[in-house]
Amino acid sequence: MYLGLKTGWNFGASLFGSILGFAILKPLSKALPPMFGGGYFGPKENVVCQSAATSAGSLGLLFASGFPAAYQLGLLSAKPADDIGRLITFTLCCAYFGIFFTMPLRRLYVCKLKLKFPSGIAAAFTIRSLHVGKNAAAMARKKTFVLIYTFCAAITLRVVSEYAPGILWDWHWSWWFYQGGWHWAACIESWGWIFELTPAFIGVGLIIPLNSAASFAGGAFLAWAIMGPALIVTGRAVGTVFSAAAPEYVNYSNMILDDPVNAPSPKYWFIWPGCMVLLCASLAEISANWRSLLASFYMMVQPILDKIRPRKHREINPDDVIWDPAPIDEQVPLWLWGGGVLTSTVLTMIIMKVQFGINPGVTLLSIIFAFIFSLIGAECAGRVSIIPVTTLGNFSQLIFGGISKGSGLSPMENQLNNGLTGMLAEAASYQCADMLSDLKTTHLIGASPRAQLYAQLVGALVSIFLSCGMYVVFTSAYPCINNLTSTTCSFPAPDVGAWRAVSVAVSAGTLPIPLSSGITAIVFGVFVIVQTFVKYKFTPQKYHDWFPNWNAIGVAFILGPINTYPMACLFGCIVATVWKKKSPAGFAMYGYAIAAGGIAGEGLGGVVNAILQIAGVSGAYKGTAAGCPLGVYCG
Fold this sequence. Notes:
It is a single chain. By secondary structure, this protein is mainly α. It has one domain (1-621). The chain is built from 26 helices and four strands. The protein has helices at 2-7, 14-31, 43-58, 66-72, 84-100, 106-112, 118-130, 138-161, 165-168, 173-179, 186-190, 199-207, 210-233, 266-288, 290-308, 334-356, 360-384, 389-406, 411-445, 449-477, 494-506, 515-538, 550-559, 564-582, 584-615, 619-622, and strands at residues 170-171, 195-196, 240-241, 250-251. Strand 3 and strand 4 (250-251) form a beta hairpin. Helix 4 (66-72) packs antiparallel against helix 19, helix 7 (118-130) packs across helix 19 (411-445) and helix 14 crosses helix 17 (360-384). Residues 316-320 have low confidence and may be disordered. Its main location: membrane.
């Protein structure tokens, strides 16, 4: 929640759960008697621990996007403490159906398509490295030491850099030229071409394929170095000057828009092509692999079919369309995931009607769209470890804002309805992507998918109450989070601005999509579908890597103009490619250890910074603005 409100970015909790779970539970397993939790604690038990942590962390995203926007628009009570009952029940709605309908997707994404899920691979490597006994091989110990060293270096860099972010974290290199008199260089800074020393995303680059990293960076270059400037030159988008002292330094990501159709910011303009690319790319991939998806669902319902039509011998043949290596008794049966989907759906429909007055049919439709958007989130997480959940929620807002408008609801009722349905899609897609990443870890470790599901359910139960309570605490300490009139705030909450802008725009009298943006979105969508058809129909498998990864390109479209992450991923991937070529054994020994340490270290460094922020001794209070544009602290 802190990271989401502070930066608009969220890291999954799997690596945190892996490392902290080991640090806490491993000693307890030795010290306590079995009746109090003592006993064997190995890699499979560690997987269960990190799965619970992942589930507990996923619901905090709601309170870094949709809910603050609703309070800023005056759609709920004066303060969250007055709405604690409704916050808890709505979080309950979001907690479970995303978890349950993810289970039948495991065979497609993990077993059949074998998507990377870089965070899942890093978590699996972390868990394996942590469980090294005294008599383990020396090579295994070396991996563990490298992971620990990288982790400590990353967490130290993340904490120390808060006190000099313009020197130790973000290199605003074009601003240095601007200060030297090259005023044209400010446009490079304006379009977000900053290099960031982020161990997490450099670590992601070490894991993901070169195709994904190149597509991510290429999409950013296409959007924010070619198309974005062209929009400004032709007058189809506008920016706002940061300061009269530097008129060349322009904000192109403003989401508070007076006229989003005729005078959009480039960031708003790119929401619609980006969403269309993500939607078409994911659905085209699913359509191209429909036989695998159908086989996955068939394997889930096979036990019921066996009861209807008994067979003497039931075996899983490795030559089948999808082979599931998990034993039958560790797989999730149809009655469990199917019953969970049905129960959570009915419960959500009841709560949304009683608490917020939303038609049950609209709620059911929102859950269907949540499932579709979850496929997009899963594709993005599996290929580039980035989940554009806020944008998927914004896209859902657009759909259900139109439905609410057609139902004759007032603008405020429309804003509340499209905000809540958007959060359902946001939560489901984030849970689905995070859980599939955990299932990748489960697959690599050889743990039980059913045990992981139980852990996810327990973690979500904890998160329902903890997330709501923490949101009340944060907003009590920092009222500016929910106060639209505030000019300065310790929490910029960029996702909240986007959420609020879409809510207002979609409840307006006309379709809030610029004509040029809509046409571009359609053209991109058709092109992606045609290319995916050509890829699977006419191109041999060995040449598939030559096709761009459109999910990564779509993420780059909607992420910018913040190009630090694509650049860091590409840098990490280039390092990994050269390293593999020069020393394959060296990369196999240390590559994943460095990646896992960097990802986990930066994430936990953010937690430390949160504590320092609350204590009033963070970089925002004690740091320097040296190296930051306009001399304003940029941490």
